[in-house]
């Protein structure tokens, strides 16, 4: 455990979910290092400011992370807190993904109006979710939807669409398990493979601080997310592409729009490789 007293400047997005996830991160790090102080620095990212943009057509890569990474590079912050599914596979020079907090439930939920049995119009900005769920709802029309968790729930409740799809982890962390007029239906991972890193809070720091923070974080979650990100990198995907990966119980569930759903059995020794070794193994499986 690091013993020196220091103040950690924590940069994060301003959304309610981002702020809650940052509170969770600070609580965990503070419990492990009670001599550390924390200064919270909320920031707006390009993705937060360009609500009219289509994440699919306007280049979603790094929209929710680049501003936080830049603050780390410039020395304006010491730690960036992210939803891991938003992180591109490439990092700026001098910045590392130190690790992850223990993962929350990682699956997707169908949020559907109570009066609807089979949704005719589903709203999502995720090409990954749309590509997979078209097979489940072949007759549905699709539209994009933007906004934070509560905004999207309100839009569905008010009839902007009959359903949407959201990450279970975000609702869990915000303490939302119901919403008037809506039903929350879990979607099996085999029907909607989550985004790589979904459900995991990732912490980015300068390279020299990486080992210090890594020693405080969840090794099991790190192994799973690094394996998922290895698949994302091997397929050339990003957080707003129709590529997905989720590791659980020795199996890597993957989806790519070109090849569909697959389940890869992962040898125990592979899950303990470093990220480079994982990437090499995954590349062999998908070649």
Automatic annotation (TrEMBL):
Keyword Transferase attributed: yes
Protein's pathway: Porphyrin-containing compound metabolism; protoporphyrin-IX biosynthesis; coproporphyrinogen-III from 5-aminolevulinate: step 2/4
Cellular compartments per GO CC: cytoplasm
Coiled coil spans: none
Keywords in alphabetical order: Porphyrin biosynthesis, Transferase
UniProt similarity note: Belongs to the HMBS family.
Record-given protein name: Hydroxymethylbilane synthase
